[in-house]
């Protein structure tokens, strides 16, 4: 009842004077019939009621205006945050593309420049070897050592190039590239690697994102996890593509942001730029799970299934 009255007072400010005028008329009638004390009392209470209602209405109006101000400030903030997040996602994507381009350029230079220097050094070594044939055993031994060193440099060059620009990914596809990554990881670490990779092909960008995510997660496991087992999965579920890397190591608190640690942050932005989500689940002593979900729209065009 009071609320109704309040809203009426607010919507029609002339209601209050109208009530007062009506009351005065009523009182006048009562007074003309001789009931002065009743009339005076009623007049005082009515005026008090009207004043109270007006005051309350003004307060409510002020409160609503303040709420509207807060709401519009919130909306503006929300808009700014959304816009900044979109800008950051774009920037990350741009930086990642620039980074991949730079990696490609470096890989090309290593392949061409270092490759030709190595070839020429090997040729020289072969010529010297033929000149030394049957003489200077000391020099021959040195030369054999030099050839070995050149071969090691060649192998290192190939490894660096593969790391910079995973040729397996472009030539053989995601699933095979991940199988190779699993195999290499098993070879260089004491960790038991369990690989469950479905033969899925994604669009090139998405394949690179998944590959780099697994690479980063595996690097982190090597550096920090002290794990005994690692599970690497790639699967197509009903409505999304999921890639995950889990370990049974020492774990960590994902909410404690480490300064200057951009591996996990970079992962999240790259996954989100592909329309996906990234979950990092871990706590001290409980191992870690990095789970990435991508929409099925990232699947490559029809029938593009990795032959494995
Ligand atoms: N699998 C893991 N096990 C234990 N700790 C981890 C693991 N992955 C990440 N971390 C912790 O999270 C931090 C952030 O990782 P990351 O963002 O990749 O940065 P960076 O590798 O450059 O340190 C690491 O410094 C490490 O403390
Ligand atoms: Mg890292």
Automatic annotation (TrEMBL):
<dbReference type="Pfam" id="PF07730">
    <property type="entry name" value="HisKA_3"/>
</dbReference>
<keyword id="KW-0812">Transmembrane</keyword>
<feature type="transmembrane region" description="Helical">
    <location>
        <begin position="36"/>
        <end position="54"/>
    </location>
</feature>
<keyword id="KW-0472">Membrane</keyword>
<feature type="transmembrane region" description="Helical">
    <location>
        <begin position="12"/>
        <end position="30"/>
    </location>
</feature>
<keyword id="KW-1133">Transmembrane helix</keyword>
<feature type="domain" description="Histidine kinase">
    <location>
        <begin position="105"/>
        <end position="298"/>
    </location>
</feature>
<dbReference type="InterPro" id="IPR050482">
    <property type="entry name" value="Sensor_HK_TwoCompSys"/>
</dbReference>
<keyword id="KW-0418">Kinase</keyword>
<dbReference type="Pfam" id="PF02518">
    <property type="entry name" value="HATPase_c"/>
</dbReference>
<keyword id="KW-0808">Transferase</keyword>
<dbReference type="InterPro" id="IPR003594">
    <property type="entry name" value="HATPase_dom"/>
</dbReference>
<keyword id="KW-0902">Two-component regulatory system</keyword>
<dbReference type="InterPro" id="IPR036890">
    <property type="entry name" value="HATPase_C_sf"/>
</dbReference>
<dbReference type="GO" id="GO:0016301">
    <property type="term" value="F:kinase activity"/>
</dbReference>
<dbReference type="InterPro" id="IPR011712">
    <property type="entry name" value="Sig_transdc_His_kin_sub3_dim/P"/>
</dbReference>
<dbReference type="InterPro" id="IPR005467">
    <property type="entry name" value="His_kinase_dom"/>
</dbReference>
<protein>
    <submittedName>
        <fullName>Sensor histidine kinase</fullName>
    </submittedName>
</protein>
């Amino acid at each position: 009842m009071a609320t109704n009255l309040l809203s009426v007072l607010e919507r029609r400010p002339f209601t209050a004077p109208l009530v007062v005028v009506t009351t005065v008329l009523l009182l006048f009638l009562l007074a003309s019939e001789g009931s002065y004390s009743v009339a005076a009392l009623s007049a005082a209470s009515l005026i008090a009621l009207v004043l109270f209602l007006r005051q309350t209405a003004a307060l409510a109006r002020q409160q609503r205006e303040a709420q509207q101000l807060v709401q519009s400030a919130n909306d503006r903030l929300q808009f700014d945050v959304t816009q900044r997040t979109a800008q950051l996602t774009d920037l990350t994507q741009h930086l990642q593309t620039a980074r991949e381009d730079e990696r490609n350029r470096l890989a090309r230079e290593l392949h061409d420049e270092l490759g030709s220097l190595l070839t020429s050094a090997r040729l020289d070594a072969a010529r010297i070897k033929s000149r030394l044939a049957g003489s200077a055993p000391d020099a021959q031994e040195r030369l054999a050592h030099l050839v070995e060193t050149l071969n090691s440099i060649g192998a290192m060059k190939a490894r660096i190039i593969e790391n910079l620009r995973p040729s397996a990914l472009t030539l053989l596809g995601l699933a095979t590239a991940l199988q190779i990554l699993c195999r290499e990881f098993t070879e260089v670490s004491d960790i038991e690697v369990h690989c469950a990779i479905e033969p899925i092909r994604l669009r090139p960008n998405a394949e690179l994102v998944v590959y780099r995510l697994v690479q980063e997660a595996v690097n982190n496991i090597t550096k920090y996890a002290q794990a005994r087992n690692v599970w690497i999965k790639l699967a197509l579920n009903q409505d999304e593509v999921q890639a995950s890397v889990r370990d049974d190591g020492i774990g960590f608190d994902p909410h404690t942001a480490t300064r200057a640690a951009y591996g996990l942050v970079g992962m999240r932005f790259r996954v989100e730029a592909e329309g996906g989500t990234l979950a990092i689940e871990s706590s001290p002593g409980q191992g870690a799970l990095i789970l990435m979900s991508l929409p099925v729209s990232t699947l490559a065009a029809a029938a593009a299934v990795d032959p494995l």
